[in-house]
Amino acid sequence: MKKLRGLKLNHCKNTENFATIDFPLPKTVRIPMAMTMGAPCQPVVKAGDEVKVGQKIGDCDAPFSAPVHSGVSGKVTAISDYLTANGSVCKAVEIETDGLQTVSEEVKPPAVTDKESFIKAVRESGVCGLGGAGFPTHIKLSPKTPIDTLIINGAECEPYITADYREMLENPEDVIGGINLMKSQLGIKYAKLAIEENKPEAIKNFTEMAESDDTIDIVTLPSSYPQGAEKVIIYNSTGRIVMEGQLPSDVGVIVLNISTVAFIYRYMQTGMPLVTRRLTVDGNAVGEPKNLNVIIGTPFRELLEFCKTDMDSVKKLIGGGPMMGMSLYSADMSVVKTSNALIAVKSYDERKTSACIRCGRCVRVCPLGLMPADIDRAYKIRNIDELRELKVMLCMNCGSCTYVCPANRKLAETNQLAKTLIPRK
Prior knowledge:
Blueprint: E1 21-22, E2 28-32, E3 42-43, E4 50-51, E5 56-59, E6 68-69, E7 74-83, E8 89-97, H1 115-125, H2 137-140, E9 149-154, H3 163-170, H4 172-186, E10 190-196, H5 200-209, E11 216-221, H6 230-238, E12 253-257, H7 258-270, E13 276-282, E14 290-295, H8 300-306, E15 316-319, E16 326-327, E17 341-345, H9 361-365, H10 372-380, H11 384-389, H12 400-404, H13 411-419
Helix pairs in contact: 4-7, 10-13
């Protein structure tokens, strides 16, 4: 089967052989109430309250949301406003840790008797897409159409990030256990564990583990970007096409990140909600790159100092990968559920933009066959009908077009701005 086109990037997987280290308990944490694509939560604790590890501290009545839990025991010192990376403001619960890490009485394996109680338990765990998108997982597990295939996304195609790879190497039994749990609870017959070919050790291990199970297929994908994008991995794993306006469930597929699946398996055994996050700390300003297991709410600054970062030299901080991550306005921002990497750089190329030279590189590299230069022109003249014809809503903001543009045009950024002109149903 022909694969969708993409970029060949320098992988920069400097930490792929670095085992995960548990980051020391911080003195204080600041836990934002908005960490997913869903509606923000509201605090259910107040200043002065004592909290324990695993205790729910934020929730929301909206279906498209996931609760927030404390990863520490200690005293709530404040409920403050928190500016997120995307510019929105939410509440945050600030906690001074007591060093005891007393586990809450709420933490116990959930009672799961059927599909409905399983999905409810997933919601209560607070889990979302741990690949960086942050889509509430319980929503994904409640499609309106029949599902025959579960795709586990182990591509991790962005440079620097090795958090998912360490999950594969350090907790392979949890990954397989999570896959089987999903299949049995959701009534899905087949699963495809899709991994890029630059992770041979993980491919070998999982191939051996699934050798006697004909319902789990280990799919080796080419090492190209954006191999882990949802539409791309669905096509490259199954040949199915998710059309404009469709969801993966419309073609009989659910896609879950590999760390998400492993976490859900552990949650069902222990009842400990999502209160920690494995992330990669790297970049040319970082003296000792590492993979760290960190309590959610820990300031990024503490991670950078722990990794011997020259803070005075840092010119840019990126939460996530260099292609789709977001610039962070401060090192004092907090680790959140979707934090899979922190990249600190001391120099980067601020290239000057010039006129489009009509070379067509952006078209050739787009995995979905879009025409970014034409979208750019239609956006500038606010031609909404042409933007629709050019299928701008299909753009997944992978940034490939911007990366290859010799005129240094910010095409991916323009695509996202163009989407705002299309009226939503």
